[in-house]
Amino acid sequence: MNVFTLRREHKIRLLFLTGITFLAYLFFSQIGFFRSFKLQKVFFISIFRKDVAHFDRQPLYEPENEFDLQEDVNIKELTKPVTPQGLVARKRSFYLNNQRMYIYSGALHYFRVVPEYWRDRLLKLKACGLNTVETYVPWNLHEETKGTFNFEGLLDLRMFIKMAQDVGLYVIFRPGPYICSEWDLGGLPSWLLHDPKMKLRSTYQPFLDAVDAYFRHLIPLVADLQYTKGGPIIAFQIENEYGSYGRDQKYMKAIKELLEQHGVVELMFTSDNDQGIDKGSMPGVLATANLKSMDWFIRMKAKLKSRQPDKPFMVMEFWTGWFDHWGEKHHTWNSTEYEKVLREIVASGGSVNLYMFHGGTNFGFMNGANYPYAPTVTSYDYDAILTESGGLTSKFQKTRDVLRKYAPKGQVPKNLPTPLDPPSTFAYGMLTVVAHLNLEAILSEAKVIKSYDVMAMELLNANEGSGQGYGFILYRNKINSGRKLRLAGKVTDRAQILIDGRQIATYDWTDKDRSIDLAGVKSSTNLDILVENLGRVNYGKALDFQRKGLTRDVYLDNNKLVNWEIYPLEFKSIFISSILSSKAWQSSLPLGNPPGFYKVLLQISGIPRDTFISMQILIFELHKPNVHVILQDKPVLG
After folding, report:
1. Is the pLDDT of residue 613 over 90?
2. What is the pLDDT, as a whole number, of residue 68?
3. Residue by residue, what is the 3-state secondary structure of 424-460?
4. Is the dihedral of CA 507, 510, 515, 520 positive or negative?
5. Can you tell me whether residue 95 is helix, strand or coil?
6. Which of 489, 503, 506 lies closest to 549 in space, CA to CA?
7. I need a surface site. Which of 185, 386, 482, 562 has the fewest CB within 10 A?
8. What is the pTM of this model?
9. Backbone angles phi, psi at 521, to 5 degrees
C-alpha cells in the first residue's frame, strides 16, 4: 500500500489561503456584503476554486516509502488537458463540450468576397449576435482543371477559417461535392462533362473517383481545424439538398464514407427543403431544413420533429432574400416579414443559419442558372443582412434585436460590439473608351483546335484533357455560295453570327428558328459563330446536360458543314496578359460595335476606393469581356 502526504509547499499555501480567506470574510461581513448563506457559499467556492486551479498544474501529493509506477502514471493521466468534446445533437438540443448551445450562424462565402474584406465581414457577423459562420466550398474553383488544385488568394480556405476562429466564431463547413448556391453547375467542375457518359451526383464510378481525388486534397487541408483538434469547425454537411435531385441512398452513403475516410470526425448533417426532406435525409444523420416563409417553417418543424424526435431543430438555410436572373428586377424581402419568421425560429428554441448574411459577388464567369434556362446575374446581393458592398441593411438591427430578446439566456452577449463602418465608396464619373482590339488580334493569341464536327466546349481537347470551362468559343469555317444557313441545335447560350467580321445575326437559347438568309454572300467567305456561355444550371435534374457552345451540326442549304477551326476563349490571367501587351490596340473605335476588347481609362487620385461600374450605356456584346474578366483577374476592381 502506498502512503501519500501533502507536499510541503502545498501545506504552507493552504495555511496561507485559510488565513487570507478568514480576514476577507470578516471584512465583507462588516460592510454587509453577505445577506444570505448562498452568497457566503459562492464566496468560499470562488476563493478555493482559484487555488485548486493552481494545484492542478503540479502533482498534489508525493509518495512516502513505496512507489507504484502504474498508479503514478494513472494519476498523471488525470491531470492531462481534457480533449474537446465535439458538437452532439441529442435530447432535442446541441451540446458542445457537453454544454448546451444554440447555433446562430450566418452564411458568408469566402470565394464571393475579396480577402481584404474577410475580417470586416466576419466582425460584422459577430456584431450581429451570431456565433458561427457557414461557408460552401466550390469544387470548380479549387480544381478548375483536373488534377490541378488551388488554395491561394481568394481561395485560401485555411486563412478564412483561421480568421473566423481568431474573431471568435465557430464554422459550419459545406464541402459538397455539389453546393447549388446559384454557382456554375452547382460547384461541380465543368471538366466532369468531358466524359460524354458522365452521371453527376450518382454512384457512376468515374464521378465517385473524381470526388475521392478532390476530398483527398480538401479534407486533410482543414482536418486540423476541426473543433476536436483545436479548430473552429463544428459540423460538416453531406452533399446538398439531394432530395430535390434524387433518392439514391447508396450515393449519399458513399459521400459520407469518403468524408470520414479522408479525416472528418465532427458532426455531419444533411439539408433539404420541404419537397426533398424525405428523400435527401439519411438514417442516423441529423436532418436540417431549408426554408423562408412562416408556412414552410411550421411544416418543416413538424416534419423533422416526427422524423427525429430526439434531435434539435436546425434551419440550415433561412433565406434572407433571393437571387436575381438576367432581365429581372432586383428581388427584395420585406424586413418585417423576415423578422417575424426569424423570431419564431429563435423563440421556439431552434438554431438557424442566415442564408445569406452577406452575399457578395459571382466573380468571373461563375454565376449559375436555373431551368428552364435563366442565367443568374453577377451580383449576389441577395437582399441579405449586408449589402453586396458590405453595408448594413435594416435586417441587421432587426436580427440583433431578435437574438438579444428571444435567444435563451447566456447564448447571445448582452453588449454586442458596434459594427464597423462600411468601406468608403466614391463615384469616379464617366469613363472614356480609349482603345479597341479587334477579334482577329484576339484570335491570334488563342490556341486553335481543328475538328471535323462542331462540338461543345467541354468536349474539346484543351486544358490537358479537361476541355474548355468558361467564357466564349468561336467556330470558324469557309463557306461557298449558299442561300440559307441553319443551326440544328439550340444555342447554349448566345451566338453572334459574323460574315467576314460583320455581324449579321444574333441568337440565344430562346430562339427556335435559327436559320439565316445568306443571299448575296460571296464564295470563300469566312463564317464565324461566336458563342457565349452565360452560366450552367446549378439546381434540378438538368445538370448532366449543361455542355456549352454548339452541340449539334450547322447546315448550309441542307449540307452539313465540316472541317472547323475552333477557338476556346476562356480569358484566363495568362491570356489576358498577352492581350493587354498586344501591339494591335487601336485608338480609333470601329463602326458597328463588333466583338472585341475595349480599353477604358479610369483616373484615380488619392487612395483608391470602392466603386461600381454601370454598363447601361454599352451594348450587351461589350460588357462581358470587359467587366467580368476584370473581376475574374482583379476582383478588387469590381
Report:
1. no
2. 35
3. CECCCCCCEEEEEEEHHHHHHCCCCEEECCCCEHHHC
4. negative
5. strand
6. 489
7. 562
8. 0.85
9. -75, 135
Which one, of 544, 542, 514, 546, lies nearest residue 533 by Cα? 546
Q: What is the CATH number of domain 432-637?
A: 2.60.120.260
Q: Which three cell numbers stand for residue 39?
A: 452568497
Half-sphere exposure for 34 (CA within 13 Å, toward CB):
16
Q: Give the torsion sign (CA, 98, 99, 100, 106).
A: negative
Helix crossing, 205-222 with 157-167: angle to 10°? Answer: 40
In the chain, domain spans: 3-78, 100-406, 432-637
CATH class of this structure's domain 100-406: alpha beta
| Count of other CB atoms within 10 angstroms of residue 495 | 23
Mean pLDDT of all residues in the chain? 87
| Nearest in space to 184 (alpha carbons), one of 462, 375, 388, 465 | 375
pLDDT score, position 28? 53
Contact in structure between 538 and 183 (CB atoms under 8 Å): yes
106: phi > 0 → left, psi -120 to 50 → alpha, else beta; which?
A: beta
Q: Which residue has the cell 460574315?
A: 499
- For residue 397, how far is the Cα from the chain centroid? 24
52-63: pLDDT as tens digits: 333 333 333 333
C-alpha cell at 250: 447508396
**What amino acid positions are annotated as catalytic residues?**
241, 317
pLDDT score of 630 more than 90: no
Vertex 538: Cα angle to 456 and 332 (nearest 5): 135
HSE-up (13 A, CA, CB side) for residue 438: 12
Q: Which of 84, 86, 66, 63 is nearest to 75 (CA)?
A: 63
Q: Look at the block and give the residue holding cell 445533437.
A: 89
Question: What is the edge-to-edge ordering of all strands in the sheet holding 515-517?
Answer: 515-517, 484-487, 554-556, 559-560
119 φ/ψ sector (left φ>0, alpha ψ -120 to 50, else beta): alpha
Q: Which three cell numbers, joined as nine digits, stand for 233?
A: 469547425
Bond preceding residue 430 cis, omega within 30 of 0: no
pLDDT at 505: 94
Per-residue pLDDT tens digits for 440-472: 999 999 999 999 999 999 999 999 999 999 999
Helix axes 335-347, 294-307, angle to 10 degrees: 20
How far out from the chain centre does Cα 466 lie? 23
C-alpha to C-alpha distance for 442 and 472, rounded to whole angstroms: 12
CA distance 312 to 350: 7
Strand ranges inside 175-217, DSSP E: none
Buried residues in 195-211 as b, exposed as e (16+ CB within 10 A): eeebebbbebeebbebb
What's at 205, amino acid-wise?
A: Q
Residue 379, pLDDT above cutoff 50: yes
Measured distance CA(182)–CA(358) in Å, rounded: 14
